[in-house]
Design goal:
CATH topology: Rossmann fold
CATH architecture: 3-Layer(aba) Sandwich
Order of helices and strands: HEHEHEHHEHEHEEH
CATH superfamily: SGNH hydrolase
Number of strands: 7
Strand content: 5-15%
Radius of gyration: 18 Å
Shape: globular
Structural class: alpha/beta
Strand order of the largest sheet: 2-1-3-4-5
Number of domains: 1
CATH class: Alpha Beta
Length: 239
């Protein structure tokens, strides 16, 4: 790895119903909360001011026509509570949840964290740092009054190619610690909701998915949305 410096049921088309996209019960506003870092808070890295949470709630059909009708707004009233902050580490997560009321059964959280922690030392960790990251993340999620939480893994902007390494750390060490952090995220996803493998999705991409080496571009913001979308819509239909 290697550095991460960041929408009357009978009137619906039959094909939509066959695909399992029937709308949820009307009248209940669904809330999507975002927590974490620039994987979700990346609007200022593209000239359209777009980030994944916006696209999950309501797709921009002009920019991404392939995702027309594939959003929370297509299933009923929905709004975004965007709390993710570019540059955040695990230590900043408690501030992002400040002011949240009690659990809302008609809500869902998505979280991406760990990339900046890797950049700030965990990429070279010899053991205790990742364990402390796990302890802090578990404490945050345990106290978060939202369930479920969809936890995204940390992507690798080098696409597994050591020649793209831009850290002053041997790739073997950095990749091992990326795996350890993603293992922690996987465990937290299983414990508090579900894992979304952003890392695996982005390995199928190309450099156009990034700007400034590590931050999601406009295409990248859509691809983060694409990674989370199946789980987000499935959880919405089940609510």
């Amino acid at each position: 790895m290697i550095r991460f410096p960041r929408r009357n049921l009978l009137m619906l088309p039959a094909a939509w119903l066959a695909a399992g996209d029937a709308p949820a019960a009307p009248g209940r506003e669904f809330v999507l909360h975002t927590f974490g870092d620039s994987i979700l808070d990346c609007a200022h890295y593209n000239d359209r001011g777009v980030h994944p949470g916006q696209l999950l709630v309501r797709n921009d059909d002009a920019l991404f026509p392939a995702f027309r009708g594939k959003d929370l707004a297509s299933l009923g009233p929905a709004r975004l509570d965007h709390r993710a902050v570019d540059g955040a580490t695990v230590d900043g997560l408690p501030r992002q949840s400040a002011g949240l009321a009690g659990s809302n059964p008609n809500s869902l959280a998505i979280l991406t964290v760990g990339g900046n922690d890797l950049l700030r030392g965990l990429a070279a960790d010899t053991g205790p740092g990742v364990r402390e990251f796990e302890r802090k993340l578990d404490r945050f999620l345990r106290g978060l009054p939202i369930r479920p939480v969809l936890v995204g893994t940390v992507y690798d902007p080098t696409f597994g190619d050591d020649s793209r390494n831009f850290l002053g750390i041997p790739p073997r060490i950095a990749r091992a610690n990326l795996r350890r952090v993603n293992d922690v995220l996987g465990a937290m996803g299983a414990r508090y909701g579900e894992l979304v493998d952003v890392h695996a999705h982005f390995l199928r991409g190309d450099p156009s998915w990034y700007v400034h080496t590590i931050e999601p571009s406009l295409r990248g913001a859509s691809e983060v949305r694409a990674a989370f979308l199946p789980a987000v819509l499935a959880r919405r239909r089940a609510s």
